[in-house]
Specification:
The chain has 18 helices and no strands. With 389 residues, the chain is mostly helical.
Length: 389
C-alpha cells in the first residue's frame, strides 16, 4: 500500500498568495494600458510581483506529482487526477461560453455552438489557457516522473542546465538590443520551450521542493528584491520606449518571473513550513478552492465589467480584487455545500469539501469555537470549586 504524503504547509501559504495575485493581475490589466503616472507605477510594481502566480502554481504541481510514486500509476491519473481538473474545467468553460454568448451575441444558438466548438481549439476566456496546459502536462506526468526518477546525479544536473538555458534565453532576449537579441533565436533552444516553456517550470518545482540545502534568507530576499526591481524598471522602460504597455519582462513562462518565483518558493519553504492552527483554519477554504477561484474569477470580473465596474486607479484595482475574491468564495462555498454539484464546480468530493471549505465546514468550525469556549468556562468553574474545597 502506498504511503500517504505528509501535508506540505508552505504550499498552503503559496496557494493563497498565488490565488490573490492571479486575480489582481487580471483586474490590473486594463488600467495598465493607461498613460504612465503614479497609479501606473503602483500597479506595475504589484503586477510585476503578481505574475509569479502562474510559475508558482506550476512549481507546486511539479513537486507534488514528480515526488509522488502514485504518479506512475496510470489508473490513478485517469480515474482521479485528470477528472479532478477536466470536469470542473468543462463546467466553468460552459458557464463562460453561456455568459459570452449572452453578452455579445444575444444568446444566439448558432453563436453558442460556434463558441463551444472554438473552445476545443483555443480558450473561450484568456485565463483558461492554464487549464489546457496543466491538463496536458498531467497527461504526460507519468513519463516525466519515470524519466526524472531514473536519472543519475549528472542527469539531474543536465536537466537543471537545460531549464536554466530556457530562462537565460528569455532573459537575454528581453534585455539585449533587438539586433543582438536575434542571435538568441536558436531553433533547437526554441524547441526546448515545449508547452510554452511551462514544463521547465513544472520540473523546476520538483528540484526546488526536493532541495535539502538551506540557502540563507538574506540571499533569497536580496535575490527577490533585485529580480523584482529589474522586472518593474524593465517594464517601465519598454512601456515608455514603445508608447504602450510592454510585458516582455513579465513573461511568466520563463525568464525573470520564473527566477523570482523560485526565490519566493524557497523563502516560503524555509520559513513557512509549520502550521499555525488559527491561521490554517482561516486560509484552508481559499487553499482548497484556489483552482475553482482561478476558473471562476475572470468570468465574474467580465460580468462586473459589463455593469460598469471598471477600475481606473490602484485603489480601484485593490477593492475590485477583494470584491471578486469575496464573491468567488461565497459562491464556491455555497456550491460546494450542494452535494450533486460540488465536484462539478470544485473538483473536490463532497466529503473533502465538508472537511475543508464549504459552509458545513464553516458551521462546524464556529460550533467548535463555542463548544471550546463553553468547555473552558466549565473548567474554570470547576477549578474555582476545587480551590474553595
Amino acid at each position: 500500500m502506498l504511503k500517504e504524503r505528509t501535508h506540505i504547509h508552505y504550499f498552503d501559504y503559496l496557494r493563497v498568495v498565488a490565488a490573490i495575485c492571479v486575480v489582481f493581475m487580471h483586474i490590473a490589466a486594463e488600467p495598465l494600458l493607461m498613460p504612465v503616472n503614479i497609479q501606473w507605477h503602483l500597479l506595475n510594481a504589484c503586477t510585476s510581483f503578481a505574475f509569479t502566480a502562474v510559475p508558482l502554481f506550476f512549481m507546486m504541481s511539479g513537486y507534488l506529482l514528480l515526488s509522488n510514486s502514485k504518479t506512475r500509476d496510470i489508473s490513478i491519473l485517469l480515474k482521479k487526477r485528470i477528472p479532478r481538473l477536466l470536469i470542473p474545467f468543462i463546467g466553468w468553460n460552459i458557464i463562460a461560453i453561456l455568459w459570452l454568448t449572452y453578452h455579445y451575441d444575444g444568446f444566439s444558438m448558432n453563436a453558442l455552438l460556434d463558441r463551444l466548438i472554438a473552445s476545443l481549439n483555443s480558450p473561450s476566456m484568456a485565463h483558461f489557457w492554464y487549464m489546457y496546459t496543466i491538463i496536458a502536462i498531467y497527461m504526460i506526468s507519468p513519463l516525466i516522473y519515470g524519466a526524472i526518477q531514473s536519472l543519475s546525479k549528472k542527469g539531474h544536473i543536465y536537466v537543471l542546465i537545460l531549464i536554466a538555458i530556457v530562462s537565460l534565453r528569455t532573459i537575454l532576449k528581453t534585455i539585449l538590443p533587438e539586433s543582438i537579441a536575434q542571435l538568441t533565436n536558436i531553433d533547437f533552444i526554441n524547441k526546448l520551450e515545449f508547452f510554452g516553456g511551462h514544463v521547465c517550470t513544472f520540473v523546476l518545482g520538483y528540484y526546488l521542493g526536493s532541495c535539502k540545502r538551506k540557502i540563507p534568507n538574506w540571499i533569497l530576499i536580496l535575490g527577490s528584491v533585485i529580480t523584482l526591481g529589474i522586472i518593474i524598471s524593465g517594464t517601465y522602460y519598454l512601456t515608455v520606449k514603445s508608447g504602450q504597455y510592454n510585458q516582455a519582462f513579465q513573461n511568466h513562462s520563463s525568464g525573470f518571473e520564473v527566477v523570482l518565483a523560485a526565490f519566493i518558493f524557497l523563502l516560503f519553504k524555509q520559513n513557512f513550513n509549520k502550521s499555525k492552527n488559527w491561521l490554517k483554519t482561516i486560509i484552508t477554504p481559499l487553499v482548497s478552492l484556489s483552482l475553482a477561484v482561478y476558473m471562476m474569477h475572470n468570468i465574474l470580473y467580465s460580468m462586473l465589467y459589463a455593469i460598469e465596474i471598471k477600475p481606473q486607479s490602484f485603489i480601484d484595482v485593490v477593492l475590485v480584487t477583494l470584491l471578486v475574491l469575496i464573491i468567488c468564495m461565497v459562491v464556491l462555498k455555497t456550491v460546494a455545500t450542494i452535494k450533486p454539484i460540488c465536484y462539478l464546480a470544485t473538483g473536490m468530493s463532497f466529503k473533502a469539501a465538508c472537511n475543508s471549505c464549504n459552509w458545513i465546514y464553516t458551521y462546524r468550525w464556529i460550533k467548535g469555537c463555542f463548544t471550546k469556549k463553553t468547555d473552558n468556562n466549565s473548567n474554570e468553574k470547576n477549578n474555582i470549586y476545587i480551590n474553595k474545597e
